[in-house]
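Hi V.,

Quick status before I head out on leave. The structure for the redesign project is tokenized and pasted below; the design run finished overnight.
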């Protein structure tokens, strides 16, 4: 059985616990790829270009080594590719594959690896974000894995577990329908901008929480946080991650009253 086929079958089994995520794989455009073994030893991040990430994911699909698959490597690749993918269908497939790869890592024994839980949750959030009912069905699951990630690896991706927890508390339905709690979001994100001040999304989500909680009373602080987002995006090595984050900031700013937008 080929690696691609076995991964697809595994996805069909695991998707039952994740609210019916898509199980077919996104086709990869593989050009002049480096040798697979060398690719699978690299570290990838926002600075990595899309074709190289696709080559690495293609190599991983054909590699059965448990030592490799018992890590967050594949789920991280999928998150990086999904975040910059503009086609909704491909984005959903890449993120769903990231969920399956993280689930596979856990099944192989990575239950003490906080990064695996983080990239599982990050991919799950991307996979369901265009489907409101699917997102609601997976809310408890996402909350659970992010709490595990926060307990085991709070510094992963410069505060990634806390960042997603903060967004969940900010945007989820409030009790009794969900876990939404603006005060809790403020607390989590305020701590995050202190612990990891160099990540632009920490400041953006904190600005969103401040505005939702206090509106005009927090306008000056919201504008300061947005200015910090713009500075970090302009000066940091965020590569292809920067553009979707910049668009998210612009969308938020466009919804602010004129005085707050002018302050930005």
């Amino acid at each position: 059985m080929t690696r691609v086929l076995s991964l697809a079958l595994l996805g069909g089994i695991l998707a039952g616990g994740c609210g019916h995520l898509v199980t077919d794989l996104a086709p990869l455009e593989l050009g002049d790829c480096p040798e697979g073994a060398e690719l699978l030893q690299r570290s990838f991040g926002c600075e990595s270009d899309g074709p190289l990430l696709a080559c690495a994911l293609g190599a991983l699909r054909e590699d059965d080594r448990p030592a490799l698959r018992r890590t967050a490597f594949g789920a991280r690749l999928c998150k990086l590719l999904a975040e910059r993918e503009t086609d909704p269908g491909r984005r959903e497939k890449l993120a769903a594959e990231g969920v399956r790869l993280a689930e596979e890592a856990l099944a192989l024994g990575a239950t003490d690896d906080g990064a695996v839980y983080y990239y599982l949750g990050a991919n799950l959030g991307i996979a369901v974000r265009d489907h409101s009912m699917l997102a609601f069905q997976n809310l408890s699951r996402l909350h659970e894995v992010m709490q595990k990630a926060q307990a085991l690896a709070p510094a992963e991706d410069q505060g990634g577990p806390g960042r997603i927890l903060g967004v969940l508390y900010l945007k989820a339905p409030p009790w009794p329908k969900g876990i939404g709690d603006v005060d809790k979001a403020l607390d989590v994100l305020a701590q995050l901008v202190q612990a990891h001040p160099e990540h632009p999304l920490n400041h953006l989500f904190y600005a969103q929480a401040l505005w939702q909680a206090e509106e005009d009373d927090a306008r000056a602080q919201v504008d300061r946080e947005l200015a910090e987002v713009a500075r970090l995006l302009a000066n940091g090595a965020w590569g292809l991650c920067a553009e979707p984050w910049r668009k998210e900031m612009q969308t938020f700013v466009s919804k602010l009253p004129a005085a707050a937008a002018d302050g930005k």
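Above is the designed sequence. The domain at 158-264 is CATH 1.25.40 (Serine Threonine Protein Phosphatase 5, Tetratricopeptide repeat).

G. will cover questions while I'm gone.

Best,
W.
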